[in-house]
Design goal:
By secondary structure, the chain is of the alpha/beta class. The protein has two domains: 224 residues, TIM Barrel, CATH 3.20.20; 100 residues, Lyase, Ornithine Decarboxylase, Chain A, domain 1. It is built from ten helices and 18 strands. A nine-stranded mixed β-sheet has the order 12-13-16-15-14-17-11-1-18. The protein is elongated. The two termini are 18 Å apart. 38% of the residues are buried.
Length: 372
């Protein structure tokens, strides 16, 4: 059995560093400190939605954002009363009603969203809390930034929606500064048009973790932080943020294999000599050695992935884990739930702890999370 271990001390360190950096960027135009919105989507990037959110609350974070209705309801059922923003918009009436019932701040990003939400507000005689989404070049949710006349016309007609915030989302802030600045300009231009037309825009936020660190001038009223809390960044880490989690398992079996013995599926590895091996119950279905999506990277990164895939086809992979702080090579293919490691000549015993480097968001949701 494997366990995802979250280091509370390191996570607390990251939270404090991020809070300090937000405070350092100054106050917004209203004189208020920049608000931190913690993004806890995807089972809180694999850290466990409820426990992670409660940990953030205990460390001074009071505003959260999710991507699905299920995530929002799970937090409410767990007794979390803080503000929760649903980042995705929907024009499905029953979905909007469910969000309202659970006191979730909805996102409106289309004519249909606005009309249906406003209709529900009238039916229930309430002011529905909402954030307005602007699509500045991501191509998903939100009013397209240059359809300003339509936006103004739709928003001027609302009577039962209270716009508490307006936001957009950067598509490549970790790498392409030019396009990020262009998206920011588009967003500010839309805000100016809306405000000129007496449409309240509320709290403004556009920065994700990368932009938060790279562009303090873009912090506006609030920032949305996800991966930075985990210490996972795609560029130089100047805040000293720490990787906060690892996958952990135990050696469950040890044996010796003769020369020329096959290990794992596809017969891609045979022992070149007699080997002492350790078997560990953790594999790719647990999240070990699962890489990030190629489409999230730069062109050069895609090229490197292609080259590495070609190389790995022709030669054996060199993957290591730590057993008692000793680097041990993985032999053969990684299995769904097991790996085999070379421990020849090493003082390793059954029950010794094995540390796996992982990306937490790929860790199987059935694996136990432990905050230490």
């Amino acid at each position: 059995m494997s366990t995802l271990v979250i280091n509370k001390k390191d996570l607390r360190h990251n939270i404090e560093q991020i809070k300090k950096f937000a405070k350092k960027s100054g106050k917004d135009d209203l004189g208020n400190p920049v608000k931190i919105i913690a993004v806890v989507k995807g089972n809180a990037y694999g850290l466990g939605l409820v426990e992670y959110t409660k940990f953030l609350i205990d460390n001074g974070i009071s505003f959260f954002a999710v991507s699905t209705i299920e995530e929002a309801i799970t937090l409410r059922k767990a007794g979390i009363k803080e503000d929760i923003l649903m980042l995705s918009s929907t024009a499905i009436k029953e979905d909007i009603k469910t969000l309202i019932k659970n006191n979730i701040i909805i996102t409106i990003g289309s004519k249909e969203d606005v009309e249906i939400a406003n209709e529900i507000g009238k039916e229930q005689n309430i002011q529905i809390r909402a954030h307005l989404k602007i699509d500045t070049g991501f191509g998903r949710y939100g009013f397209i930034y240059n359809n300003r006349d339509e936006m103004v016309e739709v928003l001027k007609g609302i009577t039962n929606i209270k716009i508490e915030g307006t936001f957009s989302h950067f598509s490549i802030s970790f790498f392409d500064d030019k396009y990020t600045k262009e998206q920011f300009k588009r967003f500010i231009d839309v805000i100016e048009v809306l405000q000129m037309n007496k449409i309240n825009t509320g709290m403004l936020h556009i920065c994700n973790s990368s932009a938060f660190l790279k562009f303090p001038n873009m912090h506006l009223n609030a920032v949305r932080i996800g991966s930075a809390f985990l210490g996972r960044l795609s560029f130089k880490n100047f805040l000293g943020l720490k990787k906060i989690a690892h996958l952990e398992a135990k050696v469950t079996e040890i044996k010796e294999l003769p020369k020329g013995f096959n290990i794992g599926y596809s017969n891609i590895y045979k022992t070149p000599s007699k080997k002492k091996i350790a078997i560990i119950p953790c594999g790719y279905l647990d999240g070990f050695n699962i890489k990030n999506e190629v489409d999230m990277f730069r062109t050069i990164d895609k090229f490197r992935y292609l080259i590495n895939d070609i190389k790995s086809f022709f030669k054996k992979q060199n993957i290591y884990v730590k057993i008692k702080d000793i680097n041990c090579k993985v032999l053969g293919r990684i299995g769904a739930y097991h790996i085999v490691c070379d421990i020849t000549g090493k003082d390793i015993k059954i029950g010794d702890t094995v540390i796996f480097p992982i990306n937490t968001k790929f860790v199987n949701s059935n694996i136990r999370r432990e905050y230490r």
